[in-house]
């Protein structure tokens, strides 16, 4: 690549990385819409200057492009727009962003992820090109696909992206029978988990974990206390006790119970009376039919599901091939051979997953694996 072209490509990656960072600000806050970022950059001969910034608004609208164009005003003419997702081509509740970019006189558009939404797919870029705009696609596409994985998984697979989160002792256990919640990882990991919760749409646990650990599953980080996603218990027989922390907090943070046709009507009514929402779910071979349940959640617009326990739920999610991301926090302590063995550990990650991140949180080791959608 000639020097000037290489410089331009490096500059494009730098601004796209900035647009991706900007979009993260609203991750988990844009309802059924993906959180997209847009930067408008112009160069009047003294180097590139950002003249407009936009991120998909809280709730999902206006879209990122409209926000960035509003800030740039007349400075958009002749400028470059960096968009983390292909600009939309459809008349939804807002006019198409591709047309807005054309009308504002944008000269060049650099895009990261393509939008599989059939109303957009390829059409957004086509509108831009038909208007004589130079379009560069797939800049930092892997990073954008990773960040938009929830949205992309929902669009392509009609189910949310499922993240399986596990806290393991150094000898590969997730707990001890009959001991409920025990500290396996430290405070830095705990904060990280709460941040993951804040960016999820749903937290899922099985009924055994809900009863044995009595978890609250809310976000308890300073400043993010209002970011708790809804909590869902896989509870074929509606055994969840009204005395659990989950049910006692159901009025402030929604609790859903996925119950099978065999669940006792009186038990369901008692939960409903406490503000729990019952999801009538099919069962298959004696357990909740996960593919159907996840499809229902996607139909309600949910994109990111975080599975927090326990071993059986994790095993079922893996067996049904429903897991897209595995994150393991491994603490330094040992729980002993009579502990509850992890359903999956670092040495037994299923085929098709690749390691994408490793970090340390305090004394704990963190690792994350994903697979494509
Ligand atoms: C963009 N910029 O910031 C976002 C986009 O229901 P609507 O009308 O808001 O459209 C939702 C679709 O818009 C969604 O499925 C995806 O294709 C796109 N999201 N597009 O140009 C944005 N969030
Ligand atoms: Zn749009």
TrEMBL record:
Coiled coil, from the record: none
Keyword Metal-binding carried by entry: yes
Record-listed substrate binding positions: 167, 197, 217, 220, 308
Keyword Transmembrane helix carried by entry: no
Annotated residues for binding of Zn(2+): 63, 88, 97
Catalysed reaction equations from the record: 2,5-diamino-6-hydroxy-4-(5-phosphoribosylamino)-pyrimidine + H2O + H(+) = 5-amino-6-(5-phospho-D-ribosylamino)uracil + NH4(+); 5-amino-6-(5-phospho-D-ribitylamino)uracil + NADP(+) = 5-amino-6-(5-phospho-D-ribosylamino)uracil + NADPH + H(+)
InterPro entries named in the record: APOBEC/CMP_deaminase_Zn-bd, CMP_dCMP_dom, Cytidine_deaminase-like, DHFR-like_dom_sf, Eubact_RibD, RibDG_C, Riboflavin_Biosynth_HTPR
Keywords for this protein: Hydrolase, Metal-binding, Multifunctional enzyme, NADP, Oxidoreductase, Riboflavin biosynthesis, Zinc
GO biological process: one example: riboflavin biosynthetic process
PROSITE patterns, alphabetized: CYT_DCMP_DEAMINASES_1 (PS00903), CYT_DCMP_DEAMINASES_2 (PS51747)
Residues in CMP/dCMP-type deaminase domain copies: 10-135
SUPFAM superfamilies from the UniProt entry: Cytidine deaminase-like (SSF53927), Dihydrofolate reductase-like (SSF53597)
Cofactor field: Zn(2+)
Stated name of the protein: Riboflavin biosynthesis protein RibD
Organism encoding this protein: Pseudaminobacter salicylatoxidans
């Amino acid at each position: 690549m000639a020097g000037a072209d290489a410089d331009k490509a490096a500059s494009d990656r730098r601004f796209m990385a900035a647009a991706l960072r900007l979009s993260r600000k609203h991750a988990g806050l844009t309802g059924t819409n993906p959180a997209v970022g847009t930067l408008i950059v112009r160069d009047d001969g003294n180097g590139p200057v950002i003249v407009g910034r936009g991120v998909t608004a809280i709730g999902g609208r206006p879209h990122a492009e409209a926000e960035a164009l509003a800030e740039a005003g007349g400075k958009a003419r002749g400028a470059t727009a960096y968009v983390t997702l292909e600009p939309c081509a459809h008349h939804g509740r807002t006019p198409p962003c591709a047309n807005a970019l054309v009308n504002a006189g944008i000269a060049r558009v650099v895009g990261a992820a393509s939008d599989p939404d059939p109303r957009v797919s390829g059409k957004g870029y086509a509108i831009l090109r038909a208007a004589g705009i130079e379009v560069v696609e797939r800049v930092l596409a892997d990073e954008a696909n990773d960040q938009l994985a929830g949205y992309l998984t929902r669009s392509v697979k009609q189910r949310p992206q499922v993240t399986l989160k596990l806290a393991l002792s150094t000898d590969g256990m997730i707990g001890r029978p009959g001991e409920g919640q025990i500290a396996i990882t430290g405070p830095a990991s705990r904060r990280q988990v709460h941040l993951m919760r804040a960016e999820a749409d749903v937290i899922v646990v099985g009924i055994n974990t809900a009863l044995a650990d009595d978890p609250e599953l809310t976000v308890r980080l300073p400043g993010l206390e209002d970011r708790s996603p809804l909590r869902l218990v896989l509870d074929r027989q509606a055994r969840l006790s009204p005395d659990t922390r989950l049910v006692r907090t159901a009025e402030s943070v929604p609790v859903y119970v996925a119950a099978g046709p065999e669940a006792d009507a009186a038990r369901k009514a008692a939960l409903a009376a406490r503000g729990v929402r019952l999801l009538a779910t099919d069962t298959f071979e004696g357990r909740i039919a996960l593919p159907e349940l996840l499809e229902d959640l996607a139909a309600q617009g949910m994109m990111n599901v975080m599975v927090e326990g326990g071993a059986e739920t994790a095993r079922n999610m893996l067996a049904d091939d429903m897991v897209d991301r595995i994150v393991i926090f491994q603490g330094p302590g040992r729980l002993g051979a009579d502990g509850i063995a992890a359903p999956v550990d670092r040495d037994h990650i299923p085929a098709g997953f690749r390691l994408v991140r490793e970090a340390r949180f305090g004394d704990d080791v963190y690792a994350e694996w994903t697979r494509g959608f």
